[in-house]
Design the sequence.
C-alpha cells in the first residue's frame, strides 16, 4: 500500500466511518435502520408463512420449530421497535435535519454523537449474533417477562441468547440516552438568533419531547435489565418468587415479584412507543402544511398536545397490565389516564384535517405518505380507547386485535412517517460538497405509496377479526395443535377457524413486503440518477432548506451567511399576485419591499 | 404555482470565519462577546447571561451533564422503588400462612464515616470549582501570567480525589465487614439491595474519580482556560450529585430497611 | 384511499360472518359476558363510525376546491374535542361499572372453589374435595410423572381428598371462584367463550369469579407467552347441567382411592 493510499484510507475512516459530522452520523443511523428493517421484514414473512404453512421447511434450516418461531417474534419485535422505529426517526433524521431546522451548524456534543451511533451498531450486532449461539436467540418476546426471561432452564434461547438480548438492549438504552441528551442540549442551547420556542418547527418539538421521554424512560429499562441480569447470574431474586419451579429447577430465595418487571418495563415501554411516533407526528404536521400551502392549524395547540402526550405517556403504563395481576382499582385509574391521552391525540388529528381541509394540496409523494400517516394513525388509534377499557381488554388482551392496533398506529404509521421524511428530505440527504442533492422519482414514489397503503390495510385490518375470534399472540402454530383432541378439541377448533383469514393476511403481508422493492429500486436508482433538486424544491419554509445548510450550496457560496429567524414556520399567503411563501430566514425588510411592490405594481 | 420572493439584499452581510474557535481562553479577553455556540448570527447583546460569551461552551456541557444526571436519577428511582416493592412482598408458606422474610441488613457503622468523608469531598470539590472562576485569576491568565487558576485549584482537586478514594476504600471495608458476618450479595433479599445500591453507587463514584482524574490531567495539560473550567465544573456537578444521591441512599439503607 | 381500504374489508366481513356473526366473536356462554359483548360491540360500531366519518372528512377536504383556511379554533378544534371527551367519558364510565362488577368484589361465599395452576405447558385444575379446603402444596413434591403435578402433600388431611384434573368441569348457573396460580413462569388463563382472561403469576394467587350459563365444551388457552410450548398449552372447559356435574364429581371421588 502506498503512503498516499494510506492517507486516503485514513481520511475515509475519518470522514465516513468515525466521523463526528452530524449529517454523516445521521446517514449512518439511517443505513443501520434500513438494514435492520430489511432483516425485520424477512423475519416477519417467515413468521407469517410458518403460521399458515407450518410444514414448509426453511431452506438451509429445515422445519421452523416452535422455539424458532418465538425467536423470530422476539428478534422481529426488538429490531423493529428499537433499531428501526426508535433509531431512524429520532437519531437518523434527528441528526440529519434537526440542527439545521434550529439554525445550528452541528449537534452540541459531536463526539458523544458518534459514540452513540457506534454503540447502537454494536447493540444491533449483539442482538443478531444471539441467533448463532447455542440454544438460539431469546424466545420471550420484546417484553421479556420473567421468570421466563430470568431462568436459563425456562426454554431454549433463554440461556446465552437471553444474555445477549439483555446486553444488546442495555447498550441500546445507554446509546439512546446519550443521543437524547445531545438532542435536548442542542435544541435548548444551539438555536440561532430569532428561533424562539414558539417558532420551532413541530418536528423539533417532536424530537424534543421524544428525547425527554428517552432520558426518563431508558434508564429505568437499564435498571430493570441490571436487576434481571443479577437474577440470572448473581443468585438474587428481585423478580423471582420463592419456590418457583422451572423445568425441575427449584428457585429458593427471597420474595421477588415478577410483576415488578412488568411495572418497570412498561414504565419504559409505553413512553417508548411515543418516542417512536412523536417525530412522525411532528413531521406529518409540517409536511401537510407545506404541501397544503397553509399554516399548521392551531400551531400552539399542536405544541401543547405534543408535550401533553409526552407527559401523559409517562402515566399510563398500567394499561398493559390490566389482566396481568394488577390491582383492579389501579386498572381503573390507568384506564382513565389512557382514555385521557386519546384527547391530545385527537386534537392532532383535528389539526391535520383542518390544515388540509379544502386546500387542494400538491400531491407529492411526501404528502401522500403524510396523508397515509394520518389515515393509519386514525385507524390504529381508534382501537386504543377500546383496549383502554379493562373489561374489554380482558377479552382482547394478547389477541391479534392488539397486534392490529399497534401495527397500524405504530409500525405502519411510523414507517409512513419515515417514508414521508425520506421523500421529503432526500435532496438534503444526498447533497454533498461536490454534488447537489437529488430527488427520488415521483412516479415510482406514487406507485410505492399506493401499493404500500393497500398492503398495510390488507395485512393489518383483518387481524382485528382474527383477534376478535380469539386468536392469541405468540402462537407458533394454528393447525395441528397437539392439545388434547388436536384440531377437534375446542381450542384447536377455535384456532383453526381463523385460518382462512390468516391465509389472506399472509398473502397480503407478502404483497406488502414486495411493494417495498419499488422503494429500494427507486432509492438505488435515484442515488445515482435522480433528478437534481433545486435549492428549495418543496417551497418549504423551515431552516433546513437554507442554502447555508446544503453542503453543496454552502461549498459554492462565496461567504458564510448569517442565519437568523424572523418568523414562525409555514408562512404561506395568498396575495394578488398568487401564492407566496416566506421562509423563516427571510428578513422582514425584504418582505415589506416585496409586499409594497405587489400592492402598487406601477409606482407613479 | 406560488411565486417566490427573491430577497434583494438590503444590508451587507457580515462575513465570518466558520471555524472561529475562540472562547476567551487567552487570545482574547474572557469577556469577548463574539464567541458563539453552534448557532450563527447570534446577537449576543440580546441574549441573557449564560447564553453568550465565553461561557457558552461551559453552559452547554453543564446542561448535558444535568440531563445525564436526570436520567441517572431515574435509574436510582427504579432501583429504590424495587427496594420498597420487594421489601413488602411476602409469600404463603406450606401452611398457608403469609410470611414476609425481609431481614434488614444492619449497616456497618463505617458507613457513617464514609458519608462524612464524601460530604467533605464535596466541599473541597466546590472550592476547586469556584477557584476556576476567580475573576482576577482569569484576567491574569489572559494576560499570560502563567496558570494561576490551575495552581489554585489543583490542591483542592487532589484533596477531592484522595477523599473520593478514601470513600471507596471505606465502602470496600464495609463490604468486607459484612462478608465476615457471612452476608453476601446473594444471602437474602435485603442484602441484595445493600450490595446493589452501594455497588452501583460505588461504580458511579468510580466513574466520578475517572472524571476527576481527567480534570486533574486537564489542569496540567490544557492551556485553554475554558477546557479546564469545563472539566472541573462538569466533574464537580457530577460529584455533588453523587454526594446528594448517597445521602438519600444511605438514609434509605440506614433508616428505611 | 377509503375505497381501497374498505373494499377488501367488506369482502372479508362476509367470510367471517359466515360462521361467527358480524364481528366474529365466539358465542358467549357466561353471565357477565352478555353485557361485555354488548359494550364491546357498541365500542366497535362507534370506532367504525368514527373511522368512516374522519376519512370522509379527510377525503372531502382533499377533493374540494381551495378555500380560505379554517380559522375558527372553537368550531374546528374545541367543540369536536369536547364531544369526543363526552363520548370517551361515557364509554369509560360504562366500562368501569362492568369492570367493578366483575373485579372489585370477591366471589360469593357459596361459589364453587376451583384452583387453576399453569405450568409449562399444561393447565391443572384442583377441586378441594369434601372438606372444601385445599391442601398445601410443596414444590419438592411436584412429580408430574407420578400423577402429582402440583405437589399436593398426600400426608396432609386437607390435601388427601383434593381432586386434580386436566379438564375444567363446571356446573352451569353456579358462580365459580377460580384461584389462579403458576408454578414456573407467567401464564395467561383465558376462556374466550366465558369472556375471561387473567394472568397466573408465580408466587401469587389471583382470584377471579364468573358464572357459566350454557352447557357445552369450550376452549381454554394460554395467552401469555410462556415458552416454546405456549401455542399448545390449552385445555377444555366442560360446562354441565348441575345434576350431571354432581354425578361427575361423585364419580371422581369414587375413583379416587
Ligand atoms: C389513542 C391513543 C392510544 C391508546 C388509548 C392506546 C391504548 C393501548 C392499550 C390499552 C394497549 C394494551 C393492549 C393490551 O396489551 O391488551 C396498547 C398496546 C399497544 N399500543 Fe397503544 N394506545 C394508543 C396509542 C398508541 C400509539 C401512539 C402507539 C405507538 C406509536 C401505540 C403502541 C402500542 C403498542 C406497541 C402496544 C402493544 C405492546 C405489546 O403488548 O407488545 N399505542 N395500546
Ligand atoms: Cu401503552
Ligand atoms: Cu403460555
Sequence:
Amino acid at each position: 500500500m502506498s503512503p498516499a493510499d494510506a492517507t486516503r484510507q485514513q481520511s475515509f475512516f475519518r470522514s465516513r466511518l468515525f466521523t463526528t459530522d452530524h449529517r454523516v452520523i445521521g446517514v449512518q443511523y439511517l443505513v443501520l435502520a434500513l438494514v435492520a428493517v430489511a432483516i425485520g421484514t424477512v423475519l416477519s414473512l417467515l413468521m407469517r408463512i410458518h403460521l399458515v404453512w407450518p410444514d414448509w421447511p426453511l431452506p438451509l434450516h429445515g422445519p421452523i420449530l416452535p422455539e424458532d418461531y418465538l425467536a423470530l417474534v422476539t428478534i422481529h419485535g426488538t429490531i423493529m421497535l428499537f433499531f428501526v422505529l426508535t433509531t431512524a426517526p429520532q437519531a437518523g433524521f434527528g441528526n440529519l435535519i434537526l440542527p439545521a431546522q434550529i439554525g445550528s451548524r452541528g449537534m452540541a456534543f459531536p463526539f458523544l454523537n458518534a459514540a452513540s451511533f457506534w454503540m447502537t451498531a454494536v447493540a444491533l450486532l449483539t442482538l443478531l449474533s444471539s441467533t448463532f449461539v447455542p440454544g438460539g436467540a431469546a424466545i420471550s418476546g420484546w417484553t421479556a417477562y420473567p421468570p421466563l426471561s430470568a431462568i436459563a432452564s425456562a426454554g431454549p434461547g433463554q440461556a446465552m441468547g437471553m444474555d445477549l438480548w439483555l446486553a444488546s438492549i442495555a447498550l441500546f438504552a445507554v446509546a439512546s440516552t446519550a443521543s437524547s441528551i445531545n438532542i435536548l442540549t442542542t435544541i435548548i442551547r444551539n438555536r440561532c438568533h430569532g428561533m424562539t420556542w414558539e417558532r420551532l418547527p413541530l418536528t423539533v418539538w417532536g424530537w424534543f419531547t421524544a428525547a425527554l421521554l428517552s432520558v426518563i424512560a431508558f434508564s429505568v429499562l437499564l435498571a430493570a435489565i441490571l436487576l434481571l441480569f443479577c437474577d440470572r447470574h448473581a443468585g438474587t431474586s428481585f423478580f423471582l418468587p420463592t419456590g418457583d419451579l422451572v423445568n425441575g429447577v427449584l428457585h429458593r430465595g427471597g420474595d421477588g415479584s415478577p410483576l415488578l418487571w412488568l411495572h418497570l418495563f412498561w414504565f419504559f415501554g409505553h413512553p417508548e412507543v411515543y418516542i417512536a411516533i412523536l417525530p412522525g407526528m411532528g413531521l406529518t404536521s409540517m409536511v401537510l402544511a407545506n404541501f397544503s400551502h397553509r399554516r399548521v392549524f392551531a400551531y400552539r395547540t399542536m405544541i401543547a398536545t405534543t408535550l401533553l402526550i409526552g407527559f401523559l405517556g409517562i402515566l399510563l403504563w398500567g394499561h398493559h397490565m390490566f389482566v396481568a395481576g394488577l390491582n383492579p382499582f389501579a386498572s381503573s385509574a390507568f384506564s382513565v389516564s389512557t382514555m385521557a391521552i386519546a384527547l391530545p391525540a385527537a386534537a392532532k388529528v383535528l389539526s391535520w384535517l383542518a390544515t388540509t381541509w379544502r386546500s387542494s394540496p400538491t400531491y407529492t409523494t411526501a404528502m401522500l405518505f403524510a396523508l397515509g400517516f394520518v389515515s393509519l394513525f386514525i385507524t390504529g388509534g381508534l382501537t386504543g380507547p377500546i383496549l383502554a377499557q379493562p373489561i374489554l381488554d380482558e377479552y382482547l388482551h394478547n389477541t391479534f386485535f392488539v397486534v392490529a392496533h399497534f401495527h397500524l398506529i405504530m409500525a405502519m404509521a411510523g414507517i409512513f412517517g419515515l417514508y414521508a421524511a425520506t421523500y421529503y428530505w432526500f435532496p438534503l440527504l444526498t447533497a454533498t460538497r461536490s454534488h447537489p442533492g437529488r430527488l427520488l422519482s415521483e412516479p415510482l414514489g406514487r406507485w410505492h405509496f399506493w401499493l404500500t397503503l393497500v398492503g398495510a390495510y390488507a395485512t393489518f385490518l383483518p387481524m382485528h377479526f382474527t383477534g376478535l375470534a380469539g386468536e392469541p399472540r405468540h402462537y407458533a402454530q394454528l393447525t395441528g395443535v397437539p392439545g388434547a383432541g388436536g384440531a377437534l378439541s375446542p381450542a384447536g377448533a377455535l384456532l383453526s377457524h381463523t385460518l382462512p383469514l390468516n391465509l389472506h393476511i399472509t398473502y397480503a403481508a407478502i404483497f406488502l413486503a414486495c411493494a417495498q422493492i419499488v422503494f429500494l429500486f427507486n432509492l438505488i436508482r435515484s442515488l445515482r440518477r435522480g433528478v437534481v433538486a433545486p435549492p428549495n424544491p418543496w417551497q418549504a419554509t423551515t431552516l433546513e432548506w437554507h442554502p447555508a445548510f446544503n453542503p453543496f450550496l454552502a461549498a459554492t457560496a462565496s461567504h458564510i451567511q448569517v442565519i437568523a429567524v424572523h418568523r414562525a414556520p409555514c408562512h404561506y399567503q395568498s396575495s394578488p399576485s398568487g401564492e407566496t411563501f416566506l421562509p423563516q430566514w427571510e428578513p422582514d425588510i425584504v418582505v415589506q419591499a416585496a409586499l409594497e411592490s405587489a400592492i402598487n405594481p406601477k409606482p407613479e | 404555482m406560488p411565486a417566490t420572493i427573491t430577497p434583494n439584499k438590503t444590508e451587507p452581510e457580515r462575513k465570518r470565519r466558520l471555524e472561529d474557535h475562540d472562547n476567551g481562553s487567552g487570545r482574547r479577553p474572557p469577556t469577548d462577546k463574539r464567541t458563539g455556540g453552534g448557532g450563527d448570527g447570534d446577537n449576543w447583546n440580546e441574549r441573557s447571561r449564560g447564553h453568550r460569551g465565553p461561557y457558552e461552551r461551559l453552559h452547554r456541557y453543564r446542561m448535558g451533564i444535568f440531563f445525564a444526571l436526570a436520567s441517572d436519577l431515574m435509574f436510582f428511582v427504579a432501583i429504590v422503588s424495587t427496594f420498597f416493592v420487594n421489601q413488602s412482598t411476602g409469600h404463603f408458606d406450606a401452611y398457608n400462612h403469609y410470611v414476609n422474610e425481609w431481614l434488614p441488613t444492619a449497616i456497618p457503622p463505617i458507613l457513617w464515616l464514609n458519608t462524612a468523608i464524601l460530604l467533605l469531598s464535596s466541599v473541597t470539590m466546590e472550592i476547586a470549582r469556584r477557584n476556576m472562576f476567580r475573576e482576577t485569576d482569569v484576567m491574569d491568565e489572559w494576560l499570560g501570567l502563567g496558570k494561576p487558576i490551575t495552581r489554585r485549584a489543583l490542591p483542592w482537586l487532589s484533596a477531592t480525589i484522595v477523599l473520593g478514594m478514601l470513600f471507596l476504600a471505606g465502602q470496600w471495608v464495609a463490604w468486607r465487614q459484612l462478608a465476615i458476618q457471612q452476608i453476601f450479595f446473594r444471602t437474602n433479599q435485603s442484602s441484595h439491595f445493600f450490595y446493589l445500591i452501594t455497588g452501583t453507587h460505588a461504580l458511579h463514584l468510580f466513574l466520578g474519580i475517572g472524571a476527576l482524574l481527567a480534570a486533574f490531567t486537564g489542569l496540567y495539560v490544557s492551556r485553554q482556560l475554558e477546557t479546564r473550567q469545563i472539566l472541573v465544573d462538569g466533574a464537580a456537578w457530577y460529584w455533588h450529585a453523587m454526594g446528594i444521591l448517597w445521602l438519600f441512599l444511605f438514609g434509605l439503607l440506614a433508616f428505611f430497611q | 384511499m377509503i375505497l381501497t381500504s374498505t373494499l377488501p374489508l367488506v369482502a372479508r366481513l362476509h367470510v367471517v360472518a359466515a360462521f361467527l356473526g358480524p364481528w366474529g366473536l365466539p358465542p358467549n356462554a357466561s353471565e357477565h359476558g352478555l353485557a361485555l359483548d354488548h359494550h364491546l360491540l357498541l365500542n366497535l360500531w362507534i370506532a367504525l363510525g368514527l373511522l368512516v366519518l374522519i376519512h370522509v372528512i379527510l377525503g372531502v377536504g382533499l377533493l374540494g376546491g381551495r378555500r380560505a383556511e379554517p380559522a375558527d379554533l372553537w368550531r374546528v378544534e374545541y367543540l369536536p374535542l369536547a364531544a369526543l371527551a363526552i363520548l370517551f367519558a361515557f364509554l369509560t364510565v360504562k366500562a368501569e361499572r362492568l369492570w367493578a362488577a366483575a373485579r372489585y368484589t370477591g366471589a360469593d361465599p357459596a361459589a364453587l372453589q376451583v384452583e387453576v395452576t399453569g405450568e409449562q405447558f399444561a393447565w391443572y385444575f384442583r377441586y378441594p374435595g369434601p372438606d372444601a379446603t385445599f391442601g398445601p402444596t410443596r414444590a419438592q413434591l411436584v412429580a408430574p410423572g407420578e400423577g402429582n403435578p402440583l405437589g399436593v402433600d398426600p400426608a396432609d388431611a386437607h390435601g388427601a381428598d383434593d381432586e386434580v384434573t386436566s379438564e375444567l368441569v363446571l356446573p352451569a348457573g353456579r358462580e365459580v371462584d377460580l384461584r389462579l396460580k403458576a408454578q414456573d413462569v407467567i401464564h395467561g388463563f383465558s376462556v374466550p367463550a366465558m369472556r375471561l382472561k387473567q394472568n397466573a403469576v408465580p408466587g401469587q394467587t389471583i382470584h377471579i369469579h364468573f358464572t357459566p350459563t350454557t352447557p357445552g365444551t369450550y376452549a381454554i388457552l394460554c395467552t401469555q407467552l410462556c415458552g416454546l410450548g405456549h401455542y399448545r398449552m390449552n385445555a377444555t372447559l366442560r360446562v354441565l347441567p348441575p345434576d350431571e356435574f354432581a354425578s361427575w364429581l361423585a364419580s371422581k371421588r369414587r375413583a379416587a382411592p
